[in-house]
Amino acid sequence: MYITCLDLEGVLVPEIWIAFSEATGIPELKKTTRDEPDYDKLMKYRIAILKEHGLGLKEIQDVIATIDPMPGAKEFLDALREMGQVIIISDTFKEFAAPLMKKLGWPTIFCNSLVVNENGEVVDFKMRVAQSKLTTVKALQSIGYDTIASGDSYNDLAMIKASKAGFLFRSTEQIKADNPDLPAFETYDELLAAIKAATAE
What we know:
The protein is globular. The protein contains 9 helices and 7 strands. It has a 7-stranded mixed beta sheet with strand order 4-3-2-1-5-6-7, sandwiched between helices. It has a domain of 126 residues: 3-Layer(aba) Sandwich (Rossmann fold), CATH 3.40.50. It is an alpha/beta fold.
């Protein structure tokens, strides 16, 4: 039995923090897990910048409401779900994800949560579990699933490498160069074909 595990941002939807950076004109918020492998360090950096500029959850959610899935993403996800079970495993937050899940047809997502005070200020974040992507695929494997995984960033590498089949999707040249053993694709058709082939093995 197979289950496909996908990253969200950069794979199915644009990077939320890049969109927010562009909307607010704060270039420091463009940094993502493609640039910074240490997610804890990255989120503390982001929260400090939000505080410095007096921005809170509402301002981020207002930008998220304007974000659409990448062209072809919903069709890809629908085709993948026809083939078998799919879980999106993301380091984003439930406070961000709901509008995007609606546009993608409400797929299953495992993600984290924010700590927001009464003024709507983001003061902290709670990871669902340590090394959430790797821990999740290992848990799925422990209940009898072979996992297939795909993502674009540093924080996806562990789940990709731990899976029966794993693929980079629209990743950076640096990550691809550092991981030449991982097949890397740029289109949904290529990724769908690779996943289909892996499930047929």
